[in-house]
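[step 3/7] fold_predict: job queued, chain A
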Amino acid sequence: MRGDELSLIIGHDEGKGKAGAVLESHRLYIDVQMVLSGTDLIGWRPAAECRTLIRPYDAATDIALYGDAPATWCAVAGDLIAVFFPEDAHAPLGGSGRLHKAVMKIRV
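[step 4/7] structure written:
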């Protein structure tokens, strides 16, 4: 489901490990990430503290990518959700194994 105000992305992905997970940030949407099966390890760092730009912000895709290391990691599974606002850089898929996730994007 995609819309201007709300979209839902269902993913079946392999974890990339901490070394393979890349910090990203968005300006237009809040990310609400829910893991339906498996455990996602998601890195976090304030976007304002990210200094190493891999890909500058692209308004068409609402994403910027960073080469900085996350300041912290959070395991998300079961009945937990992770919510990331535009000021939060986050690195999903930091764990290992197969994940089934739902990511809801809510326009700010």
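[step 5/7] annotate
The beta strands are 6-14, 23-25, 29-37, 39-46, 53-58, 63-66, 72-77, 81-84, 88-91, 98-107.
The mean pLDDT is 95.
exit 0
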